[in-house]
Amino acid sequence: MTIATLAAVLVVPGTVVLGNLLSARGAPDSAAHAPPVGVTSRMLTEFVRPQDPRVLPRLLEDGSSFRAIALNGVGDVLGTTRKSDRSGVVGGPQGVWLASWENSAVLRKIKGGAEDPSLWTMAAGDRISVWSEGVGLEGRRLECVEDGSTSPSRTLDDRWESRERFFADRDVVVWTRNDKRRLAMARSCSGTQRTLPAQGQLKALSYPYAYLRQGTKLTRIHLESGKVSPLPAQPSARDAARGFVMAAGDDVVAWAAGSTLTVLHLRTQANRWTPLMPQATDDLYIGSLTVGDRLLVYTATHSHRDEAVSLVYDLRTGRQITVPDEVMAAGDRLLWRDGDTYRLARVPG
Length: 349
What we know:
The protein is mostly beta strands.
């Protein structure tokens, strides 16, 4: 794979700036100053606007690398940093960082601190960022901050179960309470919380619906009315017994189980199956699904090394390609790793 050359970095309090990508106004400079385009960028050309790609730094001055974990539909990227040793083995996540579409060349530190295994998952809604952090030896809590706020983060739940996923969409955050029998929902970081009965494990969110899995059964719950309904297609018992990840959009629900990706279009109730890459069934890789307005992405990330491979699926045409890097979709935005940088672009309708 071609490794892009990273521009020199300038460190300022609370931020890491990709120095030669900043103009006098602090916005990304012209593409002429961007690092060379690598293999993954060339492979994704057909899906994104060629004039759009913005460059996010990955390498920090202390030798750690930024790892994107969540992307929202307006192009905000939420993530953490991790260090690698000489053999390429990646250490634990450390800190919470945010880059925006308007100023993608700047990584802003939201939270510092020591390595924290609770930072394995995060959620980015429209202008809200949610993450988990450890408290002492056993405790975990969910923290939320609104973009641009100078106030400390707000605790949504001080007894979060560290193996459960949480999600954000628009200004809504949804998670499972520690009793595992109710969902909790909050609007923004400071809004009033509500609870709803939950039968199953929270797997995905596309407001106003949250998606749950109970054994081989998939349901969705309307967050405002509380009405629960089964999905028109269900995974097989064999698929449900395998590693299972799920994602949802306005009119699509998808799940990956074993070596198969299933894409269900809710309006037409048509579903498609497509094979996944070999890494999907490799125990050393962790699978994830993200869905945007047009593109759906399955990514398999190595659990100990800075390696990933992704399947990019066009929801309109069914076309798919496999690229040798991590990729993430949300709304009309697409984020992908390209050598020692990330690229962020819009996907035309």
